[in-house]
Amino acid sequence: MQIEDLDDYILSHIDPEGESLARLDRDTHLFHLRPRMCSGHLQGRLLKMLVRMIAPKRILELGTFTGYSALCLAEGLPEDGELHTIEIDDELEDFIRTHLSQSPVGNRVHLHIGDAREVLKRLDPDHRFDLVFIDANKRQYSEYYDLVFDRVSPGGFIIADNTLWDGKVVEPGKKIDAQTQGILDFNDKIASDTRVEKVILPLRDGLTIIYKKP
To answer: Tell me: the pLDDT tens digits for 51-72?
Structure first.
């Protein structure tokens, strides 16, 4: 079976992404550069399922892009759950807010525009998050991890996207760019952190699931 056929098979045997997400994915591909940054159907359904399993009340996302992953995470939340998502590119704000308003779960999402390192300082320091999804600047993954760790509830989870970085993490003999180095440093940091349990899923570009020990 060809990989394209296998991908199609998987997508045809999981839950559909729904009308609002399909529209968001289409508009992302039509109007934005690097649409591959959008989580997409399979990863989106996985994110929702992980939220169902973890049952968080409050989620933090670093790196909104066009809002696809935020809405997938929000779908898994209970009615009184909330998601705070941070996007550094202010030119995306109108697009994101438009699609949040068109989604039946958009009211669960609180969008913050700015550098995550600065926005985090403005969020209520007493607020704890049961789940954090990191999908922002790869150069700063280790810094984001340190910034959010104490805000994660004991027994909570951190999920980091792109941790296999298109296979560049295992390409020997090639010049390492800053983003790849950021991912390498982050992966090594998590591997040696005894405060957490961790596993890397080879889904799309790599997804690391990190459990904060109570």
So the answer is: 999 999 999 999 999 999 999 9
Q: What are the domain boundaries of the chain?
A: 3-212
Please check whether the domain covering 3-212 is classified as CATH 2.60.40.10: no
| Model confidence, pTM | 0.94
44, 91, 203 from 67: Cα distances, Å = 11, 13, 20
Q: Has residue 175 got a pLDDT over 80? A: no
CA 124 from chain centre, in angstroms, equals: 21
**What is the torsional sign of CA 189, 193, 196, 199?**
positive
pLDDT, greater one: 74 or 174 = 74
Comparing CA positions, the residue from 149, 155, 197 lying closest to residue 208 is 197
- Token digits of residue 137: 């600047």
| Count of Cβ atoms closer than 10 Å to residue 89 Cβ | 15
First-to-last CA distance in the chain?
Answer: 44
How many CA within 13 A on the CB side of residue 37? Answer: 16
